[in-house]
Amino acid sequence: MNLLFGHPRSVMRGYRMKKMIINGANGYVASNFIVELLQHNYQVVALVRSNKKLSARERMEQVLLEMNDGQQLPFENLMVFDYSLFEENFALQPEQLEAIFSEEADYFHFAASLKFDIKSKEEIFSTNLQGVTNSVNTFKKYSPAASRFFFVSTAYSCGQMNDVFEERFYDDAEIDSFRNYYEQSKRYAENMIRKFRDEEQLNAHILRLSQIVGNNQNGVTKTDYGIFDFSKRIQNIALKYPDSTVRLRINPESTQNLLPIDILVNYLMDAVRAEELPVILNMVAKQSVRNADIMNSLGKLLPIKLIPEFNIQHSEMTLLERIIDAGMAFTGAYIDINLKFDTTKLDGILNAQPSKICAESIHQMLDYFLNEQATKKYKKAMS
What we know:
Layout: E1 3-5, E2 11-12, E3 15-16, E4 19-23, H1 28-39, E5 43-48, H2 56-67, E6 78-82, H3 94-100, E7 105-109, H4 121-142, E8 148-154, H5 181-200, E9 204-209, E10 211-213, H6 227-240, E11 244-248, E12 255-256, E13 258-260, H7 261-273, E14 280-283, E15 289-290, H8 291-301, E16 304-308, H9 319-326, H10 344-349, H11 359-382
Parallel strand pairs: 4-5, 4-7, 5-6, 7-8, 8-9, 9-14, 10-13, 11-16
Antiparallel strand pairs: 1-6, 2-3, 12-15
Helix pairs in contact: 1-2, 1-7, 4-5, 6-11, 8-11
């Protein structure tokens, strides 16, 4: 595999910034994080897979420019490697590994399978356990002793517990303690990291993220995950059957913990700058958003009337309602929850109190996202 690189060092006012090594680097969260790192003159090593159309570096630069609204970035501080998550030493050559792990660094493991269904169970556990194991082994083998390993987990590794989810380890549990296999795989991976810490003194930290949404300041939203995937489905129905009234099996008073990408990036930067760091941080929003507020926004933005009717039976649904219900295989597991997260340890590392997300900022994100979707549909129709 070829090494694709810029200059390997970044300097600001004579100070050499710590190196950041990031796998799964072209994902939504990781790429936004890298934009911020580059803007602050950090040296960044991105581990990315090439595809049939683009090299690893082309993929990385393309997504970074997209996340930075087309504005140029100091790519001279970016190194990009075409790697394989599952192969020994990431299928990289010794000189490449030496370049990556040449000095003390923070290593972030973002790579993950976001699938959740039983048909994908083997892939989920392979990526979210085997992939993490291989990542840890490569890190341990080549990184200097002072380097730190960050495992990016999910706040939903809490599973179906009703208590406050604390910033500590929880034991493995059977699948009936979780909403899906994704949640379970992340809990298992956290405990695998715990074992590496206890038995092999791995300098590791776990970052639990809730559902990541758009920018809390300007509404710019470049992810179609979670509520945005749901809103895209509702948009398709509304355009095909305008002015329809549909009932949704959703509890309007239940909530979603939606963490804006700009706030998360600030969390990550504070973690990077912290000299002493707790083992586990719940990186979640300070307040949740009601399902009713999300539905009200969609009703205002789209030619459709949405009525929450949580106890509606499938036999009572119209054909249109059944179509929407069938498309909620993933989001349906999160429509009747009010999760509570402890953030005491997170609060201890923050340099500033984060702004809170609210119904108005979510409305702004949905407005941006749906307009972007409509523009894409128009361009496709005209091409």
